[in-house]
Fold this sequence. Notes:
The complex is a heterodimer. Chain A is mainly β. Chain A has strands at residues 4-7, 10-13, 19-25, 31-38, 42-49, 56-57, 64-68, 74-78, 87-94, 103-104, 108-112. In chain A, a hairpin with a 5-residue loop joins strand 7 and strand 8 (74-78). In chain A, 38% of the residues are buried. Chain B is built from no helices and eleven strands.
Amino acid sequence: NAGVTQTPKFQVLKTGQSMTLQCAQDMNHNSMYWYRQDPGMGLRLIYYSASEGTTDKGEVPNGYNVSRLNKREFSLRLESAAPSQTSVYFCASSEALGTYEQYFGPGTRLTVT
Amino acid sequence: AQSVTQLGSHVSVSEGALVLLRCNYSSSVPPYLFWYVQYPNQGLQLLLKYTSAATLVKGINGFEAEFKKSETSFHLTKPSAHMSDAAEYFCAVSERLLDDMRFGAGTRLTVKP
C-alpha cells in the first residue's frame, strides 16, 4: 500500500516550457487535490476533484490545468511555466471533500528559471 | 470564505517544555478544524481534527487541541516536547461538508536539547 505517489520528485524548467506532474493514490479515495507550498504562505489549493470525472478550481488556478484520468490518477499540467510557479507541489487524496482526512504525497520540488 | 491565522511563524522550546502553537480561525458557520504536521522533505500528515464532537481533541504523538468558540481558537499543545517533534505544523479549516480546506501559513517548531 503506497498511499499517494508523485512523480517526478524534482524538476527544473526554463520559462515557457511545459510539463505534467503525475499523482496516483491506491486508497480508493474519491477526492483528490493539488496544492502548492511557498515559504510563509502555507498550502494553497490549485485544483481539486471531488470525484472521478469532475474538477474544480481552487484558490490559485491560473497557469495550471488538471486531468482526473481515472479514480486513481490526477495530473497537473503547466502549459507555459513561469518563475512565479517555482514552488513545492503536493498532491493529496481523501474519501470525500470537507471533513475527511487528506493524505499527502511526498511532493515535487519545481524550479523555473 | 473561511481562513486561519497561525500566530508565530517560528516557535522554539526546550526539550521537556510545554509546546503551544496558536491558531485562530474565521468562519461564518461552525467549522471543521485540523492540525497537520510536516517533517522535513515529507508531505503533511494529520495530527488531529475537530468535527463538532468533544471540544478537547486528542491526536497522535501526545498532541491535543481545544476548540474555543468564544475565542475562535484551536490551539495545539503538548505537555512535554521531544526532539522528534521538530517539524512544521499547519492549522486548517473547512466550513462545509463539500467545501475545500484552507491552510494557515504554518509554524516551524524547533526543540532545543
